[in-house]
Every structure is written in structure tokens, then in C-alpha cells.
Write a structure and sequence with these properties.
- The chain is of the alpha+beta class and 356 residues long.
- α1 packs parallel to α8.
- The chain is globular, with a radius of gyration of 20 Å.
């Protein structure tokens, strides 16, 4: 098979995932070649090690400076594994990357990950569980679950989550075009190694704005202490809005040093309303995953309506064209201010799963 040749360090996870699912070798050159510290970062090396655990027979070659990576994919095995994600990127960054691979494994995946559960950079485990995992059900992969055993906050982490995911023979086509109206908001205000009053103040502040627009708002508090609170203190908010058609929109806010709980609650509810205003059936974080799963689906038409295409989603469109030859049809809907995307799936099948 022909090698996928790409340059730069951007969208590192998606490149490796597309290469693995397409079975094509991958060559990435000029990885931060002009930086003061050129080459792969520690968290990217950690993702490669996780990929090696989940597959059998993959080959990874990195040059001395770390600016050139050659990757030959293996067979996705799944099974039971444990991995330390470190503290450079959160657990959500790793879960986002491996999720498309998990459903095509030889065995159902049971993965224990340690590290940061929430930070200011990546999707949190609460957002991942509340809004990203449910997206799999639109493609016929139901039953994925995520349990937070320990909360791990920056800078030292110490969190622990257990991710389980079933396998499928092949995905189903999706038809996500009716966004509906927002009917309820659910969320969690978490805190670790600080007073539970911080979480209560975040909830009160978040509800202050949302209750003006919607009566059905429920945000529960999640307080961790002792060993379950990880290594560092902190608090934050994760909100999920559900529409009348079952579409989910989510946001994360993690408190930085010096932030007041009232500021976190107000910022979280304002960000959620901004995400809802953009429209569409999928929020900004879930767009790339949905587009990739549509490309992997059966040789049938899948459709999705999104608000504003994120830069991450645009790069995913380019990647699936390069790796799978799948080209999306994109049409702007002037009335609603949304974008309608459709494609004919590649028909990727899980050859390891028995038909019965």
C-alpha cells in the first residue's frame, strides 16, 4: 500500500489513527524542525506507546532528532490495558485519539488511564462521558462507558479513569440533521482538596444565568478528598445541554489560579449558550470524531448538521480524503446559519470480530 506522507506536528493523533484504520504506512517529516526544541514531545511519545499496546505488529521508527517519524500500522487487538498519560496533556486528549480505534478491536477494550482528568487545554473526562461517548450510539456502537475513580488536576495529576468500549463488525450510517430545541441542562461542578463550598458557589453562579432561559437545569457537585482527590487542589465546571431530538452540546471550564467560583460559573454558562447559538447537532469538540466515523461507515450516505466548522474538523476532512479517499459534500444552510455535510462511507469492517 502507498505511504501517507505528511509534514509538521499538527493533528498527530488523527494522522496515526487514520493510518492504522486504513492499513497504510505513515511518514511524518519536519516535526517542529524550526523550534528551539525540535522533534516529538513526551506526550506524543506516550500516545505512540499507548497505540503500541492497543495494536499487534505495529512498527515505529523515529530519527535521532525526533523530527521524522515512520509508522507501519498493526492489527487492533483491544483487550485489558493500563497506561500512564503523564501531566503534559489530559486523559481526554488520549481518549479522543483512541476512540475510533476502540470499536474496531479484536476484543472489547478495558483501559485504565492515570494522569490529569481536567485541565484548561483539553476536553475533560466529564465532557467526554457526557457528550462524546453518546455520539457512538448514532453509528451503532452502544455500551461504551467511562468511570472516574480518582480526580487528577493540574499540575501534578494523580487521576484515574477506567474506559470500556464494545466492538462492532461495522458502523451504521448516521443521519444527524435535526438539532431541535434545548430542553434541559445537566452538569457537574467538581472540586478536589478544597472546601466543598467552592463547588456550591460555582453551581449557584451557573444556574443564575441558565435559569433565566430554562427551568430544567440540574448541576450536581462532585467533591473529592484524600487519595481520591489526586495530587493537586482545584475545581471547575462541566455542562451538557440536551435538545428535544437528543443532540448534546457540552463545555468545560477549569479554574486557574486566582479565579473566583462565581467567575467560573458565569463563564461556563456563557460558553454553553455561545455553543448553543452556533447551532448544529454536534458541538465543536465532537465534530472531528463524527466526520471520521462517517468516513469509516458503510457504503451508504451519512449526513450531519454542524454550526461553524472548527479548524480541527476541517483538518479531519483533509485527512480522510488523503487516507481513505472519502470526499464530503458541504452545503451551507443560509436560513439556520449551519453547515450540512454528507459523504459516502468507505465501508471499513472489523475483520477480527466474528459474524455470529
Amino acid at each position: 500500500m502507498s505511504t501517507i506522507k505528511l509534514k509538521g506536528s499538527s493533528h498527530f493523533r488523527q494522522r496515526l489513527v487514520c493510518a492504522t484504520l486504513s492499513g497504510r504506512p505513515l511518514l511524518i517529516t519536519q516535526i517542529r524542525a524550526d523550534d528551539e526544541e525540535p522533534g516529538l514531545r513526551d506526550f506524543e511519545g506516550s500516545f505512540l506507546r499507548l497505540l503500541e499496546r492497543l495494536t499487534n505488529g505495529c512498527q515505529v521508527e523515529i530519527n535521532e532528532t525526533g523530527t521524522v517519524l515512520r509508522y507501519v500500522p498493526g492489527i487492533i487487538t483491544g483487550g485489558r490495558h493500563a497506561h500512564d498519560c503523564g501531566t503534559a496533556r489530559s486523559i481526554g486528549w488520549f481518549l479522543e485519539g483512541i476512540l475510533p480505534l476502540a470499536v474496531f478491536g479484536k476484543e472489547p477494550l478495558a483501559l485504565s488511564l492515570t494522569g490529569l482528568t481536567n485541565d484548561t487545554l483539553d476536553v475533560s473526562v466529564d465532557n467526554f462521558k457526557g457528550a462524546i461517548l453518546p455520539l457512538l450510539s448514532y453509528f451503532g456502537a452502544e455500551g461504551a462507558d467511562l468511570k472516574v475513580k480518582k480526580r487528577g488536576l493540574p499540575p501534578s495529576g494523580g487521576g484515574l479513569v477506567v474506559f470500556t468500549c464494545p466492538i462492532v463488525r461495522e458502523l451504521q450510517p448516521c443521519n444527524l440533521v435535526d438539532a431541535g430545541l434545548i430542553r434541559r441542562v445537566r452538569g457537574v461542578a467538581y472540586c478536589a482538596k478544597v472546601s466543598p463550598q467552592f463547588a456550591n458557589r460555582v453551581v449557584t453562579s451557573a444556574r443564575g444565568l441558565l435559569n433565566r432561559l430554562l427551568p430544567d437545569v440540574f448541576v450536581h457537585t462532585d467533591h473529592y478528598k484524600g487519595a481520591a482527590g489526586g495530587e493537586s487542589p482545584g475545581y471547575g465546571l462541566s455542562l451538557v445541554a440536551e435538545s428535544t431530538t437528543g443532540c448534546l452540546v457540552a463545555i468545560d471550564v477549569h479554574a486557574e489560579e486566582g479565579s473566583l467560583p462565581e467567575e467560573i460559573g458565569q463563564r461556563g454558562s456563557a460558553l454553553l449558550l455561545e455553543e448553543v447559538r452556533r447551532g448544529g447537532c454536534v458541538d465543536s469538540v465532537g465534530q472531528a470524531l463524527v466526520l471520521l466515523l462517517m468516513a469509516l461507515g458503510p457504503e451508504d450516505v451519512s449526513r450531519v448538521r454542524v454550526g461553524q466548522l472548527s479548524s480541527h474538523a476541517i483538518q479531519t476532512l483533509r485527512l480522510v480524503r488523503e487516507a481513505f479517499g472519502v470526499i464530503f459534500k458541504i452545503r451551507a444552510d443560509r436560513e439556520t446559519g449551519t453547515v450540512l455535510l454528507s459523504c459516502l462511507g468507505r465501508g471499513v469492517k472489523n475483520i477480527s470480530k466474528k459474524v455470529t
